[in-house]
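Q: what sequence does this backbone want?
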């Protein structure tokens, strides 16, 4: 591993990578394989399994020789927010990356690149690979303000040109948070229930705590763009009205942050 590191990442801290999983082993393998291939920074994988089939655990058992893996299993599906919080609580490194199990990173040393940016600017609390510059008074984001380097350009619009862009909120598909901020905000807010808006909320809590949020230009792809989980039969049995949950959580967000919203970062 040491022979492959670039000079820019030799001195960076290690990172914990938290992934919440619920079945979908094919997508999970794509994500983990890309992490193993393209991560030079010292890291641990913190896997929180929300009651998956046995083949998911068998897969992680099979790659224990390739990575430092901490495996947490829930017998029932607690939802991604609670699962991510379990992973955040178990993480040992000063930087914690949270990544969806359907995101594939193509860029070599992607995590080192993000941490170098954060180390160089202590004002950065959260760095993502996608985010929006504007969030409206309603708690909804302005999609036209999206900054990303995801290889879903046809679906998401033009990729960013700048190496680092300031944003109001990061997207939960992949972000890195420093532990000192995490200790102040105490993880994701489980008041949002199963999912939706937790990423916007922690972004605003980052700003409220005196930090700023950025997107770093990282070549990656959100394979499940549009929501693989939301299309699963099992998800529809747990969350009967996904759009209703989204609207409810946007209202919670708008009410909570009414003194800060609308917010636009130039």
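A:
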């Amino acid at each position: 591993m040491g022979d492959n590191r670039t000079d820019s990442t030799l001195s960076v801290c290690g990172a914990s990578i938290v992934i919440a999983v619920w079945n979908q082993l094919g997508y999970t393998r794509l994500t983990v394989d890309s992490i193993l291939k393209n991560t030079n920074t010292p890291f641990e994988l913190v896997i929180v399994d929300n009651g998956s089939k046995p083949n998911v655990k068998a897969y992680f058992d099979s790659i224990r020789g390739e990575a430092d893996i901490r495996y947490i299993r829930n017998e029932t599906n607690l939802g991604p927010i609670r699962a991510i919080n379990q992973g955040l609580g178990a993480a040992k490194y000063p930087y914690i990356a949270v990544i969806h199990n359907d995101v594939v990173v193509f860029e070599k040393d992607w995590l080192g690149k993000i941490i170098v940016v954060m180390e160089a600017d202590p004002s950065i609390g959260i760095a993502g690979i996608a985010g929006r510059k504007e969030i409206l008074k309603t708690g909804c984001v302005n999609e036209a303000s999206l900054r990303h380097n995801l290889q879903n350009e046809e679906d998401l619009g033009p990729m960013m040109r700048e190496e680092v862009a300031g944003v109001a909120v990061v997207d939960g598909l992949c972000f890195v948070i420093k532990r000192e901020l995490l200790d102040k905000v105490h993880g994701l807010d489980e008041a949002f229930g199963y999912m939706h808006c937790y990423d916007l909320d922690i972004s605003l809590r980052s700003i409220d705590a005196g930090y700023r949020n950025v997107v770093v230009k990282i070549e990656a792809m959100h394979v499940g763009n549009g929501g693989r989980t939301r299309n699963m039969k099992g998800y529809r049995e747990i969350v009967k009205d996904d759009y209703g949950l989204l609207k409810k959580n946007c209202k919670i967000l708008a009410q909570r942050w009414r003194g800060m919203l609308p917010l636009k970062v130039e």
